[in-house]
What we know:
The chain is of the alpha+beta class. About 35% of the residues lie in helices and about 25% in strands.
Amino acid sequence: xxxxxxxxxxxxxxxxxxxxxxxxxxxxxxxxxxxxxxxxxxxxxxxxxxxxxxxxxxxxxxxxxxxxxxxxxxxxxxxxxxxxxxxxxxxxxxxxxxxxxxxxxxxxxxxxxxxxxxxxxxxxxxxxxxxxxxxxxxxxxxxxxxxxxxxxxxxxxxxxxxxxxxxxxxxxxxxxxxxxxxxxxxxxxxxxxxxxxxxxxxxxxxxxxxxxxxxxxxxxxxxxxxxxxxxxxxxxxxxxxxxxxxxxxxxxxxxxxxxxxxxxxxxxxxxxxxxxxxx
Length: 279
């Protein structure tokens, strides 16, 4: 289990790595080396207001994600309000790093594996008596990047995006990483390239990725693709064929379709809103 004191995390936060750190009240804030480092250090005192009042991309009682300016650079920031979560979940992070800090570790692993993900620029958290109350992460804002489900809607009756996602997922698993929340919305497409974002549920393994997590990720990707094409008015009846779609994904990933398809058949068959031919 990774902890707040694991070397993979602490090495990223050391001055020797180029990271600069601040403490403002109960805010512990670390800015990793980048061209935006000075600007990100300056915004630390108003981090909450910048995220909450920025160009909000997603908002709930427990978190806010938005785009805002650090100096002249547009960045992406996310604030998670742990004080709105159950006490048991907050206590879990007494030993474990917050999801923001953990994302920085996973992003570095992806970078080392040659996989695309937004660069983590800064991380922060607030704790009282070591109990977490808030966490923050700031990453680069990818220009002209779109979620894969949005891109798929402009490519009706095509397997190309699913094939690209399957090949990319195989590379992630080969690097000993599982995403933890695989769906088309957590792949991004930027021109001809594809990558992952929203890594805070990811897991990193010292050896091979366990088969159960491979099956889970493949099944979730397949389910996400089917749900998306079912919701597209341009989808032709011939394209609503779950076994064929599953085979396309299996071929792209490089595995036998029977390694993951049976585990999800019973689940899909209960989803009466799906219009697919399940064979």
